[in-house]
């Protein structure tokens, strides 16, 4: 069996917070195909990475899809001088996931069985509220009530006012500060969420790496005092381990980082310098199933829990689930929506959470089957189908 094509599928979907998903289909000469995902947080990034997938097809065409480690290194090392992190790493991630999917289909077993076998058959999830419903206290109570009523034991949210005049502001570092009035608004919203969720639900705050060191310290401590946080995520921009160390040393709240770290090498200093209580690699950005498994094993050696990030679609969720099913030091798996049925417009085999947990798919490979008619009808900019 040989790889013949890498087909990027950039598709519109109401299930995506960003309005679209970016998948990759790896095709073979024997008709077995595998699916990966790269979905990023901006449409510019999605289109750019889709074009990169077209460019790297020649690197892997003709390779044995079972040679997963070889293909990973070919893709990763091809960008050594241009930069092997970031977009280049996401390309390797998507192809890697698709190759594991193919391997499972060829052997007739789920991916988790290829990674040492499951230590659990259900994956605890945490999820996000729709914060557009937070205009009133009643809206907060209703939205949080829906999530808790669906069985979720942990909720993540960003309580900080965004710079509304800056596009995609939560991905940007501005001056690193937050006014006292905006801090009070964040605390008030967090208290409303705590009241609606009750004392037993774990609250996770995501700062999106927007703050400088003194601001992050102040916010982490004040929010933790107000609502008893389970973690404070990405308090400072991910470029500086020194900044992260300062926040860690001067706060009491557990720290979570990792969605914007790429490969095991980025996680080495986090673990060795004891800079975080939780690590949260994203399987579609950090290097795929192969790399997530390695990072999880590194974290296990340091007794640090792993909680994969997910701001994307069903491949991200399910690929992370197969790895975490085999990972002893697993905390929870992130889900972009508490209602996984929103993904089912894309799929032939539906996904569903049960009491805030995802049953591990039992079909061969990832256990996903895409509705390619739906994908073809929603292709963006010609990326997909017979491309």
From TrEMBL:
Q: Does the keyword Lyase apply?
A: yes
* Metal-binding recorded as keyword: no
Mandelate racemase/muconate lactonizing enzyme C-terminal domain: residues covered: 137-254
Report the SUPFAM superfamilies cross-referenced here.
Enolase C-terminal domain-like, Enolase N-terminal domain-like
A single GO molecular function, which one? lyase activity
Domain of life from the UniProt record: Bacteria
Gene3D superfamilies for this protein: Enolase-like C-terminal domain, Enolase-like, N-terminal domain
Q: What keywords were assigned to this record?
A: Lyase
Name of the molecule in the record? Galactonate dehydratase
Ranges in a coiled coil = none
In terms of Pfam families, this protein maps to:
MR_MLE_C (PF13378), MR_MLE_N (PF02746)
């Amino acid at each position: 069996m040989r790889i013949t094509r890498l087909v990027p599928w950039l598709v519109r979907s109401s299930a995506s917070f960003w309005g679209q998903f970016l998948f990759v289909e790896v095709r073979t000469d024997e008709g077995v195909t595998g699916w990966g995902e790269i979905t990023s947080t901006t449409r510019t990034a999605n289109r750019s990475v889709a074009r990169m997938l077209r460019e790297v097809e020649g690197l892997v065409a003709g390779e044995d899809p079972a040679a997963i480690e070889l293909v990973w290194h070919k893709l990763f090392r091809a960008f050594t001088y241009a930069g092997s992190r970031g977009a280049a790493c996401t390309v390797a991630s998507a192809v890697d996931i698709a190759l594991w999917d193919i391997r499972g289909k060829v052997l007739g077993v789920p991916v988790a069985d290829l990674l040492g076998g499951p230590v659990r058959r259900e994956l605890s999830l945490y999820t996000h509220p729709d914060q557009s419903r937070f205009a009133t206290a009643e809206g907060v109570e209703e939205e949080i009530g829906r999530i808790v009523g669906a069985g979720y034991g942990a909720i993540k949210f960003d309580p900080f006012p965004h710079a509304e005049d800056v596009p995609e502001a939560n991905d940007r570092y501005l001056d690193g500060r937050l006014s006292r009035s905006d801090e009070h608004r964040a605390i008030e919203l967090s208290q409303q969420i705590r009241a609606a969720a009750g004392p037993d639900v774990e609250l996770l705050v995501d700062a999106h790496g927007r703050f400088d060191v003194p601001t992050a310290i102040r916010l982490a401590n004040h929010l933790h005092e107000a609502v008893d946080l389970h973690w404070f995520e990405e308090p400072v921009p991910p470029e500086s381990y020194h900044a992260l160390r300062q926040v860690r040393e001067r706060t009491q709240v557990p720290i979570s980082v990792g969605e914007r770290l790429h490969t095991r090498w980025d996680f080495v200093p986090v673990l060795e310098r004891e800079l975080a209580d939780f690590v949260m690699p994203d399987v579609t950005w950090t290097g795929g199933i192969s790399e997530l498994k390695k990072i999880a094993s590194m974290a296990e050696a340091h007794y640090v829990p792993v909680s994969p990030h997910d701001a994307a679609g069903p491949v991200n969720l399910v690929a992370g689930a197969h790895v975490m099913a085999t990972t002893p030091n697993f905390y929870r798996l992130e889900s972009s929506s508490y209602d996984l049925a929103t993904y089912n417009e894309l799929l032939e085999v539906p996904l569903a959470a049960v009491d805030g947990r995802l049953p591990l798919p039992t079909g061969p490979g990832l256990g996903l089957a895409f509705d390619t008619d739906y994908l073809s009808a929603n292709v963006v900019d010609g990326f997909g189908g017979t491309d």
